[in-house]
Automatic annotation (TrEMBL):
Annotated GO MF terms: monooxygenase activity
Listed Gene3D superfamilies: 3.30.70.100
Organism: Pikeienuella piscinae
PROSITE patterns the record matches: ABM
Domain ABM: 2-99
Keyword presence, Lyase: no
Name under which the protein is recorded: Antibiotic biosynthesis monooxygenase
Sorted UniProt keywords: Monooxygenase, Oxidoreductase
Record-linked InterPro entries: ABM_dom, Dimeric_a/b-barrel, Heme-degrading_MO
Amino acid sequence: MYLAMNRFRILPGKESQFEDVWRNRKSRLDDVPGFVEFHLMKGPETDGKTLYASHTIWESEADFVAWTKSENFRAAHKNAGSNDRLYDGHPQFEGFSVVEGA
């Protein structure tokens, strides 16, 4: 199993707009081999910004990498730059492989 996470710092007052972008997007993840599940998580306010994290769980890191090179990925992210006014900087990516699990 592989967990891919992007962390976002959202500008004050832009939280609802950010959440709407995610609710209304066409992720195309259900069409991708190896995709297991997705969650958008809201965290605390830190340094005047609200933290969010998107988590996708994959059967393997190879499945995730294949997704990032796919036409579905390009289509799902084609408008990502149009929401820059919501963010404080670029998202921070982190990927994790399972060491131990139940």
